[in-house]
Amino acid sequence: MPTVDTPLLHNSDEEQERALNIVEGFGSESKRLWKIAGPAILTCLCQYTLGALSQTFVGQIGELELAAFSVENSVIAGLAFGVMLGMGSALETLCGQAYGAGQIRMLGVYMQRSWVILFVTALILVPIYVWSPPILKLCGQTTEISDAAGKFARWMLPQLFAYTFNFPIQKFLQAQRKVNVMLWISLAALVFHAVFSWLLILKLGWGLTGAAITLNISWWLVVIAQLLYIYITKSDGAWSGFTWLAFVDLYGFVKLSLASAIMLCLEFWYLMVLVVITGRLKNPLIPVDALSICMNINGWDAMIAIGFNAAISVRVSNELGAGNFRAAKLAVMVVSITSVCIGVIAMIVVLATRDYFPYVFTTSLAVVKETTKLATLLGVTVVLNSLQPVLSGVAVGAGWQSLVAYINIGCYYVFGLPAGILLGFTFNFGVEGIWSGMIGGIALQTIILIAITSLTNWRKEAEQAASRVRKWGGSIASDE
Protein backbone atom coordinates (compact mmCIF):
# COMPACT_ATOMS: atom_id res chain seq x y z
CA MET A 1 0.00 0.00 0.00
CA PRO A 2 1.54 3.34 -1.11
CA THR A 3 2.29 5.98 1.49
CA VAL A 4 1.34 9.64 1.28
CA ASP A 5 5.00 10.51 0.73
CA THR A 6 5.27 8.64 -2.59
CA PRO A 7 4.15 11.55 -4.85
CA LEU A 8 6.62 13.80 -3.07
CA LEU A 9 9.38 11.27 -3.69
CA HIS A 10 8.45 11.12 -7.39
CA ASN A 11 8.47 14.90 -7.59
CA SER A 12 11.84 14.98 -5.87
CA ASP A 13 13.26 12.46 -8.37
CA GLU A 14 11.90 14.47 -11.29
CA GLU A 15 13.39 17.68 -9.91
CA GLN A 16 16.77 16.00 -9.42
CA GLU A 17 16.66 14.60 -12.96
CA ARG A 18 15.71 18.02 -14.34
CA ALA A 19 18.54 19.67 -12.42
CA LEU A 20 20.97 17.02 -13.66
CA ASN A 21 19.84 17.62 -17.26
CA ILE A 22 20.40 21.36 -16.82
CA VAL A 23 23.92 20.78 -15.47
CA GLU A 24 24.74 18.32 -18.27
CA GLY A 25 23.31 20.71 -20.87
CA PHE A 26 25.32 23.60 -19.42
CA GLY A 27 28.51 21.53 -19.47
CA SER A 28 27.93 20.27 -23.00
CA GLU A 29 27.21 23.77 -24.33
CA SER A 30 30.19 25.15 -22.44
CA LYS A 31 32.48 22.68 -24.24
CA ARG A 32 31.05 23.67 -27.64
CA LEU A 33 31.41 27.34 -26.72
CA TRP A 34 35.03 27.07 -25.60
CA LYS A 35 36.04 25.17 -28.74
CA ILE A 36 35.19 28.35 -30.62
CA ALA A 37 35.78 30.98 -27.94
CA GLY A 38 39.20 29.72 -26.80
CA PRO A 39 40.98 30.06 -30.15
CA ALA A 40 38.92 33.16 -31.00
CA ILE A 41 40.01 34.90 -27.78
CA LEU A 42 43.66 34.02 -28.36
CA THR A 43 43.39 35.22 -31.98
CA CYS A 44 41.89 38.52 -30.84
CA LEU A 45 44.59 38.89 -28.19
CA CYS A 46 47.34 38.23 -30.73
CA GLN A 47 45.96 40.74 -33.22
CA TYR A 48 45.28 43.35 -30.55
CA THR A 49 48.78 42.85 -29.17
CA LEU A 50 50.20 43.98 -32.51
CA GLY A 51 49.14 47.56 -31.74
CA ALA A 52 49.55 47.28 -27.97
CA LEU A 53 53.11 46.04 -28.33
CA SER A 54 53.98 48.89 -30.67
CA GLN A 55 52.47 51.34 -28.18
CA THR A 56 54.57 49.85 -25.40
CA PHE A 57 57.78 50.32 -27.41
CA VAL A 58 56.77 53.82 -28.52
CA GLY A 59 56.03 54.76 -24.90
CA GLN A 60 59.69 54.18 -24.08
CA ILE A 61 60.68 56.97 -26.49
CA GLY A 62 58.75 59.92 -25.07
CA GLU A 63 55.42 61.42 -23.98
CA LEU A 64 54.67 63.12 -27.33
CA GLU A 65 55.30 59.93 -29.31
CA LEU A 66 53.08 57.95 -26.93
CA ALA A 67 50.29 60.55 -27.19
CA ALA A 68 50.59 60.66 -31.02
CA PHE A 69 50.43 56.87 -31.31
CA SER A 70 47.57 56.65 -28.80
CA VAL A 71 45.46 59.34 -30.49
CA GLU A 72 45.97 57.84 -33.96
CA ASN A 73 45.31 54.33 -32.70
CA SER A 74 42.26 55.32 -30.64
CA VAL A 75 40.72 57.98 -32.89
CA ILE A 76 41.74 57.60 -36.55
CA ALA A 77 42.50 53.86 -36.68
CA GLY A 78 39.80 53.26 -34.05
CA LEU A 79 37.20 54.93 -36.25
CA ALA A 80 38.32 52.93 -39.30
CA PHE A 81 38.49 49.69 -37.29
CA GLY A 82 34.93 50.18 -36.06
CA VAL A 83 33.56 50.97 -39.54
CA MET A 84 35.37 48.11 -41.29
CA LEU A 85 34.66 45.52 -38.59
CA GLY A 86 31.03 46.64 -38.47
CA MET A 87 30.57 46.43 -42.24
CA GLY A 88 32.18 42.99 -42.22
CA SER A 89 30.03 41.78 -39.32
CA ALA A 90 27.03 41.30 -41.63
CA LEU A 91 28.79 38.04 -42.52
CA GLU A 92 28.39 36.81 -38.94
CA THR A 93 24.63 36.74 -39.43
CA LEU A 94 24.57 35.55 -43.04
CA CYS A 95 27.48 33.06 -43.07
CA GLY A 96 26.56 31.65 -39.67
CA GLN A 97 22.92 31.04 -40.53
CA ALA A 98 23.76 29.72 -44.02
CA TYR A 99 26.28 27.28 -42.53
CA GLY A 100 23.73 26.11 -39.97
CA ALA A 101 21.23 25.53 -42.78
CA GLY A 102 23.77 23.53 -44.82
CA GLN A 103 24.14 26.14 -47.60
CA ILE A 104 27.94 25.94 -47.65
CA ARG A 105 28.65 27.45 -51.09
CA MET A 106 26.92 30.67 -50.10
CA LEU A 107 29.73 31.48 -47.64
CA GLY A 108 32.33 32.11 -50.35
CA VAL A 109 29.98 34.34 -52.31
CA TYR A 110 29.08 36.32 -49.19
CA MET A 111 32.77 36.85 -48.40
CA GLN A 112 33.46 38.23 -51.88
CA ARG A 113 30.50 40.59 -51.65
CA SER A 114 31.87 41.85 -48.36
CA TRP A 115 35.30 42.42 -49.95
CA VAL A 116 33.71 44.62 -52.60
CA ILE A 117 31.77 46.64 -50.02
CA LEU A 118 34.70 47.03 -47.61
CA PHE A 119 37.10 48.08 -50.38
CA VAL A 120 34.77 50.91 -51.36
CA THR A 121 34.39 51.78 -47.68
CA ALA A 122 38.18 51.95 -47.26
CA LEU A 123 38.43 54.37 -50.20
CA ILE A 124 35.83 56.59 -48.53
CA LEU A 125 37.86 56.56 -45.28
CA VAL A 126 41.19 57.52 -46.93
CA PRO A 127 40.57 61.31 -46.68
CA ILE A 128 40.18 60.99 -42.89
CA TYR A 129 43.72 59.60 -42.71
CA VAL A 130 45.12 62.17 -45.15
CA TRP A 131 43.56 65.19 -43.45
CA SER A 132 43.68 63.89 -39.89
CA PRO A 133 45.71 66.82 -38.40
CA PRO A 134 42.99 69.47 -38.97
CA ILE A 135 40.32 66.94 -37.97
CA LEU A 136 42.08 66.24 -34.68
CA LYS A 137 42.58 69.97 -34.04
CA LEU A 138 38.88 70.50 -34.71
CA CYS A 139 38.16 67.82 -32.10
CA GLY A 140 40.18 69.81 -29.57
CA GLN A 141 43.59 68.09 -29.65
CA THR A 142 46.65 70.31 -29.30
CA THR A 143 48.58 71.30 -32.45
CA GLU A 144 51.62 69.33 -31.27
CA ILE A 145 49.71 66.07 -30.74
CA SER A 146 47.54 66.55 -33.87
CA ASP A 147 50.49 67.06 -36.23
CA ALA A 148 52.43 64.09 -34.85
CA ALA A 149 49.37 61.81 -34.86
CA GLY A 150 48.37 62.99 -38.35
CA LYS A 151 51.77 62.17 -39.80
CA PHE A 152 51.61 58.70 -38.23
CA ALA A 153 48.05 58.20 -39.55
CA ARG A 154 49.16 58.71 -43.17
CA TRP A 155 51.81 56.04 -42.70
CA MET A 156 49.11 53.63 -41.49
CA LEU A 157 47.00 53.64 -44.70
CA PRO A 158 48.16 50.10 -45.70
CA GLN A 159 46.63 48.79 -42.45
CA LEU A 160 43.28 50.27 -43.50
CA PHE A 161 43.24 48.18 -46.70
CA ALA A 162 44.36 45.08 -44.77
CA TYR A 163 41.10 45.45 -42.80
CA THR A 164 39.24 45.24 -46.14
CA PHE A 165 40.20 41.59 -46.55
CA ASN A 166 40.84 40.50 -42.96
CA PHE A 167 37.43 41.04 -41.40
CA PRO A 168 35.37 39.21 -44.08
CA ILE A 169 37.90 36.35 -44.05
CA GLN A 170 37.61 36.05 -40.28
CA LYS A 171 33.80 35.91 -40.35
CA PHE A 172 33.99 33.37 -43.20
CA LEU A 173 36.29 31.09 -41.19
CA GLN A 174 34.51 31.64 -37.86
CA ALA A 175 31.16 30.58 -39.32
CA GLN A 176 32.77 27.23 -40.22
CA ARG A 177 34.44 27.05 -36.78
CA LYS A 178 37.91 27.10 -38.37
CA VAL A 179 39.23 29.25 -35.54
CA ASN A 180 42.42 27.26 -34.91
CA VAL A 181 43.74 28.26 -38.35
CA MET A 182 43.25 31.93 -37.51
CA LEU A 183 44.99 31.44 -34.16
CA TRP A 184 48.19 29.90 -35.57
CA ILE A 185 48.46 32.53 -38.29
CA SER A 186 47.95 35.38 -35.80
CA LEU A 187 50.46 33.86 -33.37
CA ALA A 188 53.12 33.62 -36.10
CA ALA A 189 52.47 37.24 -37.10
CA LEU A 190 52.79 38.35 -33.47
CA VAL A 191 56.21 36.69 -33.08
CA PHE A 192 57.40 38.43 -36.26
CA HIS A 193 55.95 41.72 -35.04
CA ALA A 194 57.59 41.54 -31.61
CA VAL A 195 61.07 40.95 -33.03
CA PHE A 196 60.90 43.61 -35.74
CA SER A 197 59.19 46.18 -33.50
CA TRP A 198 62.06 45.98 -31.03
CA LEU A 199 64.58 46.14 -33.88
CA LEU A 200 63.08 49.10 -35.76
CA ILE A 201 61.56 51.19 -32.95
CA LEU A 202 64.20 50.87 -30.21
CA LYS A 203 67.37 49.30 -31.61
CA LEU A 204 67.55 51.30 -34.87
CA GLY A 205 65.73 54.30 -33.37
CA TRP A 206 63.12 54.67 -36.15
CA GLY A 207 60.41 55.58 -33.63
CA LEU A 208 56.92 56.07 -35.08
CA THR A 209 58.17 55.26 -38.59
CA GLY A 210 59.37 51.86 -37.38
CA ALA A 211 56.03 51.29 -35.61
CA ALA A 212 54.14 52.02 -38.85
CA ILE A 213 56.32 49.68 -40.94
CA THR A 214 56.01 46.71 -38.57
CA LEU A 215 52.26 47.17 -37.99
CA ASN A 216 51.47 47.37 -41.71
CA ILE A 217 53.59 44.35 -42.61
CA SER A 218 52.21 42.26 -39.73
CA TRP A 219 48.58 42.91 -40.66
CA TRP A 220 49.22 42.04 -44.30
CA LEU A 221 51.02 38.84 -43.29
CA VAL A 222 47.85 37.77 -41.47
CA VAL A 223 45.70 38.53 -44.54
CA ILE A 224 47.97 36.75 -47.04
CA ALA A 225 48.37 33.63 -44.88
CA GLN A 226 44.59 33.32 -44.38
CA LEU A 227 43.95 33.77 -48.11
CA LEU A 228 46.50 31.07 -48.96
CA TYR A 229 44.79 28.67 -46.56
CA ILE A 230 41.39 29.30 -48.18
CA TYR A 231 42.69 29.00 -51.75
CA ILE A 232 44.65 25.82 -51.07
CA THR A 233 42.08 23.93 -48.97
CA LYS A 234 38.92 25.32 -50.67
CA SER A 235 37.57 25.45 -47.09
CA ASP A 236 35.56 22.21 -47.41
CA GLY A 237 33.60 23.52 -50.40
CA ALA A 238 32.81 26.97 -48.98
CA TRP A 239 35.29 28.49 -51.46
CA SER A 240 34.73 27.63 -55.14
CA GLY A 241 36.66 30.49 -56.73
CA PHE A 242 35.93 34.06 -57.73
CA THR A 243 32.46 34.69 -59.12
CA TRP A 244 30.40 37.55 -60.59
CA LEU A 245 27.75 36.67 -57.99
CA ALA A 246 29.84 38.84 -55.67
CA PHE A 247 28.24 41.83 -57.41
CA VAL A 248 24.65 40.50 -57.18
CA ASP A 249 22.16 41.65 -54.50
CA LEU A 250 24.65 44.25 -53.27
CA TYR A 251 21.94 46.73 -52.25
CA GLY A 252 20.37 44.43 -49.69
CA PHE A 253 23.80 43.29 -48.55
CA VAL A 254 24.92 46.89 -48.07
CA LYS A 255 21.81 47.62 -45.96
CA LEU A 256 22.61 44.80 -43.54
CA SER A 257 26.31 45.78 -43.55
CA LEU A 258 25.45 49.38 -42.72
CA ALA A 259 23.17 48.29 -39.87
CA SER A 260 26.01 46.13 -38.49
CA ALA A 261 28.51 48.98 -38.93
CA ILE A 262 26.31 51.53 -37.18
CA MET A 263 25.70 49.18 -34.27
CA LEU A 264 29.38 48.38 -33.74
CA CYS A 265 30.71 51.85 -34.57
CA LEU A 266 28.50 53.44 -31.95
CA GLU A 267 30.17 51.10 -29.45
CA PHE A 268 33.76 51.54 -30.69
CA TRP A 269 33.48 55.30 -31.06
CA TYR A 270 32.03 55.71 -27.59
CA LEU A 271 35.33 55.05 -25.81
CA MET A 272 37.20 56.72 -28.68
CA VAL A 273 35.24 59.89 -27.92
CA LEU A 274 36.46 59.60 -24.32
CA VAL A 275 40.05 60.16 -25.54
CA VAL A 276 38.96 63.09 -27.75
CA ILE A 277 37.04 64.85 -24.96
CA THR A 278 39.91 64.33 -22.53
CA GLY A 279 42.11 66.15 -25.04
CA ARG A 280 40.04 69.29 -24.43
CA LEU A 281 41.01 69.46 -20.75
CA LYS A 282 43.61 71.98 -19.60
CA ASN A 283 47.12 70.50 -19.92
CA PRO A 284 45.82 67.33 -21.61
CA LEU A 285 49.10 65.50 -22.31
CA ILE A 286 49.29 63.61 -18.98
CA PRO A 287 45.54 62.73 -18.84
CA VAL A 288 45.57 61.55 -22.48
CA ASP A 289 48.63 59.36 -21.84
CA ALA A 290 47.10 57.91 -18.65
CA LEU A 291 43.77 57.29 -20.34
CA SER A 292 45.46 55.67 -23.33
CA ILE A 293 47.20 53.22 -20.98
CA CYS A 294 43.86 52.37 -19.34
CA MET A 295 42.23 51.97 -22.77
CA ASN A 296 45.09 49.66 -23.71
CA ILE A 297 44.43 47.47 -20.67
CA ASN A 298 40.68 47.64 -21.33
CA GLY A 299 41.40 46.62 -24.90
CA TRP A 300 43.23 43.50 -23.75
CA ASP A 301 40.25 42.50 -21.64
CA ALA A 302 37.86 43.45 -24.45
CA MET A 303 39.59 40.89 -26.69
CA ILE A 304 38.32 38.17 -24.35
CA ALA A 305 34.79 39.54 -24.64
CA ILE A 306 35.15 39.90 -28.42
CA GLY A 307 36.25 36.26 -28.57
CA PHE A 308 33.06 35.31 -26.74
CA ASN A 309 31.20 37.72 -29.03
CA ALA A 310 32.45 35.75 -32.05
CA ALA A 311 31.69 32.41 -30.39
CA ILE A 312 28.13 33.26 -29.36
CA SER A 313 27.45 34.85 -32.73
CA VAL A 314 28.51 31.60 -34.41
CA ARG A 315 26.57 29.43 -31.95
CA VAL A 316 23.36 31.48 -32.17
CA SER A 317 23.46 31.91 -35.96
CA ASN A 318 24.32 28.23 -36.57
CA GLU A 319 21.58 26.95 -34.24
CA LEU A 320 18.95 29.37 -35.53
CA GLY A 321 19.90 28.51 -39.11
CA ALA A 322 19.43 24.83 -38.24
CA GLY A 323 16.12 25.58 -36.46
CA ASN A 324 17.41 24.59 -32.99
CA PHE A 325 15.98 27.52 -31.01
CA ARG A 326 16.36 25.81 -27.60
CA ALA A 327 20.08 25.27 -28.22
CA ALA A 328 20.44 28.95 -29.18
CA LYS A 329 18.76 30.03 -25.95
CA LEU A 330 20.99 27.75 -23.85
CA ALA A 331 24.10 29.07 -25.61
CA VAL A 332 23.16 32.64 -24.66
CA MET A 333 22.75 31.70 -21.00
CA VAL A 334 26.05 29.80 -20.84
CA VAL A 335 28.15 32.49 -22.51
CA SER A 336 26.64 35.26 -20.36
CA ILE A 337 27.46 33.51 -17.08
CA THR A 338 30.96 32.55 -18.26
CA SER A 339 31.90 36.02 -19.51
CA VAL A 340 30.71 37.79 -16.35
CA CYS A 341 32.80 35.46 -14.17
CA ILE A 342 35.87 36.23 -16.28
CA GLY A 343 35.10 39.96 -16.08
CA VAL A 344 35.04 39.87 -12.28
CA ILE A 345 38.39 38.08 -12.20
CA ALA A 346 39.86 40.68 -14.60
CA MET A 347 38.59 43.52 -12.39
CA ILE A 348 40.31 41.98 -9.35
CA VAL A 349 43.57 41.71 -11.30
CA VAL A 350 43.37 45.37 -12.41
CA LEU A 351 42.75 46.63 -8.88
CA ALA A 352 45.47 44.42 -7.40
CA THR A 353 48.10 45.64 -9.88
CA ARG A 354 47.09 49.32 -10.12
CA ASP A 355 50.43 50.48 -8.69
CA TYR A 356 52.49 48.36 -11.08
CA PHE A 357 50.98 47.97 -14.58
CA PRO A 358 51.47 51.66 -15.63
CA TYR A 359 55.27 51.15 -15.58
CA VAL A 360 54.91 48.65 -18.45
CA PHE A 361 53.81 51.50 -20.73
CA THR A 362 55.68 54.59 -19.52
CA THR A 363 58.62 55.86 -17.48
CA SER A 364 56.87 59.16 -16.62
CA LEU A 365 55.98 59.32 -12.91
CA ALA A 366 53.23 61.88 -13.61
CA VAL A 367 51.56 59.52 -16.09
CA VAL A 368 51.93 56.59 -13.67
CA LYS A 369 50.26 58.55 -10.86
CA GLU A 370 47.34 59.61 -13.08
CA THR A 371 46.89 56.06 -14.40
CA THR A 372 46.74 54.65 -10.86
CA LYS A 373 43.96 57.14 -10.01
CA LEU A 374 41.92 55.88 -12.98
CA ALA A 375 42.33 52.18 -12.13
CA THR A 376 39.02 51.92 -10.21
CA LEU A 377 37.06 53.22 -13.19
CA LEU A 378 39.01 50.82 -15.39
CA GLY A 379 37.96 47.93 -13.14
CA VAL A 380 34.26 48.86 -13.41
CA THR A 381 34.55 49.23 -17.19
CA VAL A 382 36.22 45.82 -17.45
CA VAL A 383 33.28 44.11 -15.72
CA LEU A 384 30.64 45.87 -17.85
CA ASN A 385 32.57 45.19 -21.04
CA SER A 386 32.75 41.49 -20.23
CA LEU A 387 29.00 41.13 -20.82
CA GLN A 388 28.07 43.96 -23.19
CA PRO A 389 30.02 42.68 -26.27
CA VAL A 390 28.62 39.20 -25.67
CA LEU A 391 25.06 40.51 -25.81
CA SER A 392 26.00 42.40 -28.98
CA GLY A 393 27.23 39.07 -30.38
CA VAL A 394 23.83 37.56 -29.64
CA ALA A 395 22.27 40.46 -31.54
CA VAL A 396 24.52 39.91 -34.57
CA GLY A 397 23.88 36.16 -34.57
CA ALA A 398 20.13 36.75 -34.49
CA GLY A 399 20.16 39.69 -36.95
CA TRP A 400 19.03 42.45 -34.54
CA GLN A 401 21.63 45.01 -35.67
CA SER A 402 19.15 47.81 -36.40
CA LEU A 403 17.42 47.51 -33.01
CA VAL A 404 20.71 47.56 -31.09
CA ALA A 405 21.91 50.57 -33.10
CA TYR A 406 18.93 52.61 -31.80
CA ILE A 407 19.59 51.40 -28.24
CA ASN A 408 23.26 52.42 -28.54
CA ILE A 409 22.35 55.91 -29.75
CA GLY A 410 20.04 56.46 -26.77
CA CYS A 411 22.23 54.97 -24.06
CA TYR A 412 25.61 56.18 -25.26
CA TYR A 413 25.05 59.51 -26.97
CA VAL A 414 21.80 60.80 -25.46
CA PHE A 415 22.55 59.72 -21.88
CA GLY A 416 26.17 58.65 -21.26
CA LEU A 417 28.13 61.21 -23.27
CA PRO A 418 26.26 64.31 -21.98
CA ALA A 419 26.55 62.95 -18.44
CA GLY A 420 30.30 62.57 -18.88
CA ILE A 421 30.72 66.09 -20.28
CA LEU A 422 28.60 67.50 -17.43
CA LEU A 423 30.64 65.72 -14.74
CA GLY A 424 33.99 66.38 -16.38
CA PHE A 425 33.67 70.05 -17.28
CA THR A 426 30.71 71.61 -15.45
CA PHE A 427 31.46 69.90 -12.13
CA ASN A 428 35.23 69.91 -12.74
CA PHE A 429 35.85 66.21 -12.10
CA GLY A 430 38.14 66.07 -15.15
CA VAL A 431 38.87 62.79 -16.87
CA GLU A 432 37.39 60.80 -13.95
CA GLY A 433 34.06 62.62 -14.33
CA ILE A 434 34.02 62.15 -18.11
CA TRP A 435 34.68 58.44 -17.79
CA SER A 436 32.17 57.96 -14.94
CA GLY A 437 29.34 59.48 -16.94
CA MET A 438 30.13 57.34 -19.93
CA ILE A 439 30.21 54.21 -17.74
CA GLY A 440 26.60 55.05 -16.88
CA GLY A 441 25.74 54.80 -20.59
CA ILE A 442 27.38 51.37 -20.86
CA ALA A 443 25.51 50.15 -17.77
CA LEU A 444 22.14 51.34 -19.13
CA GLN A 445 22.74 49.70 -22.52
CA THR A 446 23.74 46.43 -20.86
CA ILE A 447 20.58 46.37 -18.71
CA ILE A 448 18.36 46.95 -21.77
CA LEU A 449 20.10 44.19 -23.78
CA ILE A 450 19.71 41.77 -20.86
CA ALA A 451 15.97 42.52 -20.78
CA ILE A 452 15.58 42.07 -24.56
CA THR A 453 17.54 38.80 -24.60
CA SER A 454 15.53 37.44 -21.66
CA LEU A 455 12.19 38.22 -23.32
CA THR A 456 13.12 36.94 -26.81
CA ASN A 457 10.92 34.32 -28.49
CA TRP A 458 13.68 32.05 -29.81
CA ARG A 459 11.29 29.83 -31.78
CA LYS A 460 10.25 32.87 -33.80
CA GLU A 461 13.90 33.87 -34.30
CA ALA A 462 14.62 30.42 -35.79
CA GLU A 463 11.72 30.86 -38.24
CA GLN A 464 13.06 34.27 -39.29
CA ALA A 465 16.54 32.80 -39.80
CA ALA A 466 15.12 30.15 -42.14
CA SER A 467 13.34 32.89 -44.11
CA ARG A 468 16.56 34.94 -44.31
CA VAL A 469 18.57 31.97 -45.66
CA ARG A 470 15.92 31.32 -48.35
CA LYS A 471 15.87 35.00 -49.34
CA TRP A 472 19.64 35.44 -49.64
CA GLY A 473 20.21 32.04 -51.20
CA GLY A 474 17.75 32.47 -54.03
CA SER A 475 19.98 34.14 -56.60
CA ILE A 476 22.84 31.76 -55.84
CA ALA A 477 20.71 28.64 -56.08
CA SER A 478 19.32 29.78 -59.44
CA ASP A 479 22.84 30.09 -60.86
CA GLU A 480 24.02 26.67 -59.74
Automatic annotation (TrEMBL):
One of its GO terms (cellular component) is membrane. NCBIfam families: matE. This is Protein DETOXIFICATION. It is found in: Membrane. GO terms for molecular function: antiporter activity; xenobiotic transmembrane transporter activity. The chain crosses the membrane at residues 75-94, 115-132, 181-201, 207-232, 253-277, 330-354, 374-396, 403-427, 433-458. GO terms for biological process: xenobiotic detoxification by transmembrane export across the plasma membrane. Its main location: membrane. Keywords: Membrane, Transmembrane, Transmembrane helix. Belongs to the multi antimicrobial extrusion (MATE) (TC 2.A.66.1) family. InterPro entries: MATE_euk, MATE_fam. It is a multi-pass membrane protein.
